[in-house]
Structure formats: structure tokens, C-alpha cells
Amino acid sequence: LALYFHIGEREEKCIIEDIPSDTLVVGNYKVQRWDIHKHDFLESAPGLGMFVTVRSPSAEVLLSKLYGPQGTFSFTSYLSGEHIICFQSNSTRFAVIAASKLRFHLDIRVGEHFLDESAIQAKEKVNEVSDRLENLIEQINHVMKQQDYEREREEKFRKTSEATNSNILWWAIVQTLILLSVGIWQIKSLRDFFIAKKLV
């Protein structure tokens, strides 16, 4: 429901809404004050407050609160039926001046089914836990990626070490064979030298 109407300052204006039980109702409004000099409604009416009163079909007051020149109000219907929503400005000006004309813009949205406060809080907690869980999962994924990276580095280092050790082993074997060959050659050379000199 979206509408606007004209009311005088300090004048009370009421509308009737047929609302099902256990239903959340949210209203947005804006008040504009008539400007005598500009002959037009000003965009806003600073300093002007609005009393919002809501009564149930059983005449129980569901809401009675003072708001600013624009705002949002909400209430929950506990009974199905005609609810009376009233608006009145809190103008403190003299009665003669207080008859100034106001333009009142109103938008009322009627919810399908009202979730009680505990359910809303539970939902907020679930969302908070869900956010923390997602954050925790992201951290776990980061740790797992870091572990995979470290594992890859360790595997690469191990292969490099094994290759280096293998090369060292073969080099040691080659060195040993060379030393043995040199040793045998020296012994054979000395033996041939001694035989040639008839020392043996």
C-alpha cells in the first residue's frame, strides 16, 4: 500500500488495514510541510515529529512511539482483523500557526508470516556460525595448500639429495677404481724395473 494525503499540524489521521494474525507490518513515511512563500511543499519538514499509534481489532495498543519527519515503523499483528494506524504531528507551535498543511507520504508493506524474535536471533546466529565456518574452511584449505607445497618441496629436495648421493657413490667407485688401477700399474712398473735391473 503506497499513498499520500494532506493533514494539518496537530491533526490526527488514521487508516484501517485488514491484517492476518502473526504478520509483520512495516511502514515507511515522509512528511513535507507547506511553504507559504514558495507555495509548494518542502522536501522535508525538519524538527517535526510524528506520533505513530497502532491498535489491534481488540483495541490493544500495539505501537505508540514518536518518530522524526521521516522514518520506519513496524509491528506484529497477534489477531486477524482491522488494525487502526494513526499519525499525528507533535508540532509545538501556536494553535493558529499549527494549522499549517502537511503532505504525508506512506508506504505500508504487509509480510506473509512473521518470524518471532527468537527465530530471527537464531537465524542471525546461524548466519554468524556459517560465516565463521566458511572462514575456518578457507583457513583449512590454505593450510592444506601450504602443506601440499611443502610436501612438493620436500619431495623435490629428497630427489635432488638422492641424485646427489648417487652421483657421489659412483664418483667414489670411479675414484677407487682409478686408485686401484694406478696402484697396480705402479707395482707392475716397479716389478718390471727391478727385473730389468736384475735386482730381483
From TrEMBL:
| Presence of keyword Signal | yes
Positions of transmembrane segments:
168-187
Against InterPro entries, the record matches this protein to: Emp24-like, GOLD_dom
Domain called GOLD: residue spans: 12-108
For this protein, the record's PROSITE patterns field holds: GOLD (PS50866)
Chief place of localization: endoplasmic reticulum
Provide a GO CC annotation, any one: endoplasmic reticulum membrane
| Topology relative to the membrane | Single-pass type I membrane protein
Location in the cell? Endoplasmic reticulum membrane; Membrane
Superkingdom to which the source organism belongs: Eukaryota
Look up the coiled coil feature and give its residue ranges: 119-146
User: What are the entry keywords?
Assistant: Coiled coil, Endoplasmic reticulum, Membrane, Signal, Transmembrane, Transmembrane helix
User: Would the keyword Protease be found if you checked this record's keyword annotation?
Assistant: no
Regarding protein family, the annotation reads: Belongs to the EMP24/GP25L family.
Q: What is this protein called?
A: TMD11 protein
Q: Which organism is it from?
A: Phainopepla nitens
